[in-house]
Amino acid sequence: MNVPCVRVPRESGEATRQRLADFDLLDHDHQITVVEGYLYIPVVSADDVPTEFDVVEYESPDRETQTTPTDILGYEPSYERLGDIVILDEDDPERAREIADAIVESDLKAATVVNRASKIKGELRVRDWDVLVGDSTETVHREYGTELRLDIDSVYFSPRLATERHRVVQQVREGEHVFDMFAGVGPFAVPAAKAGADVVACDLNEVAVEYLRENAERNDVTERLTAIHGDVRDVADEYDGWADRLIMNLPHSASEFLDTAVRLAGDECVVHLYDIQHEDDPFGPGLTAVRAAAEDEYDIEVLEEKIVRSYAPHEYNVCLDVRLTKRP
């Protein structure tokens, strides 16, 4: 029978499936189908699917019976997939162990199961993990045709931001100069280089930069990507006026680096500023900070105000896209 499905290119399938799962929209009674390079992902409600996705009617077969963690537990556990790692966020260690055992017993493919053991902490934004199954916290994550190797014990990474990263990378044009100021293992920088940009990517975390270089090689973009270990404020003089596009994905504190961003910006530069703000005024503080840093030299145009996701009660993770145009 025909059911509503999200139709996406195959290489975007896992990131899209995860996004739909975050909205609790997956139809588990019908199979995901691959036809001529496209995935048809069944959803329970076409009206609730985010507008950036293409919803079509498709004759999706009934799902073959598989044993899921829900079947074993009698309730639906919450977890996140990152490569072959399953990530839990359970306060009760006994419940976490119960879910991990059910994952192993089920047909869910996972090499490692971990439970969050701390909040994100420190300048490098890493966290502690309880490893419940397996012995490695390293994995290969795939999103929108890009492969990224990383170790969650040593670097920060969120698979939930895949759609947002893709939104930004789709704007990148061949030959652009893109500067990723807080690059991590390269989830913005590597696909931007794949899009044909010349990319400089900087990060304080030495391990993340090692993975960034490996990921550039893994995706055949080493000639277009320069990875730098260090504080972007110490690097800026070398790239004064170089950037056509700046990515500032360091929520809570990116605004503190806007003076550096202005030094890096060329005569015309698009800035993607990420922030955490209260729902009453999610974009105002960021725009105020941009104006304070740039309005003496640049005209400022707001291109998009994007709510990325809910961060905490009454707080949003947001992105403010602005264009800086230098005055004559």
TrEMBL record:
Q: Which GO terms describe its molecular function?
A: tRNA methyltransferase activity
Sequence intervals crossing the membrane: none
Assigned GO CC terms: cytoplasm
Gene3D superfamilies found in the cross-reference section: 3.30.70.2580, Met-10+ protein-like domains, Vaccinia Virus protein VP39
Q: Where is the SAM-dependent methyltransferase TRM5/TYW2-type domain?
A: 79-326
Q: Which UniProt keywords apply?
A: Cytoplasm, Methyltransferase, S-adenosyl-L-methionine, Transferase, tRNA processing
- Cite a single Pfam family from the UniProt record: Trm5_N
- Entry-linked InterPro entries: MeTrfase_TRM5/TYW2 (IPR030382), SAM-dependent_MTases_sf (IPR029063), TRM5-TYW2-like_MTfase (IPR056743), TRM5/TYW2-like_N (IPR056744), Trm5a/b_N (IPR040601)
Keyword Chaperone recorded: no
Its GO biological process annotations read: tRNA N1-guanine methylation
The name on file for this protein is: Methyltransferase domain-containing protein
Species annotation: Haloferax marinum
Q: What is the lineage of its organism?
A: Archaea, Methanobacteriati, Methanobacteriota, Stenosarchaea group, Halobacteria
